[in-house]
Amino acid sequence: xxxxxxxxxxxxxxxxxxxxxxxxxxxxxxxxxxxxxxxxxxxxxxxxxxxxxxxxxxxxxxxxxxxxxxxx
Length: 72
Fold this sequence. Notes:
- The chain has 2 helices and no strands.
- 35% of the residues lie in helices and 0% in strands.
- It has helices at residues 19-33, 48-57.
- The mean pLDDT is 84.
- The chain has a domain at 12-57.
- It is globular, with a radius of gyration of 14 Å.
- It is mainly α.
- The longest helix is centred in the middle third of the chain and has 15 residues, at 19-33.
């Protein structure tokens, strides 16, 4: 089973209250109920708070994303 969830984040004023952790754990629970074997997350390296949280809740798999703008 595959799926894609829209990005989610908490506002800066709510950071540190456990809301992000609750959102991620809810996604994990729903994915497990749906029969998924794993959940992958992506974020930008500049999102330090998100990266720190993901480091606590998952394993960094070593993938690097590359992109190339083609222009309009």
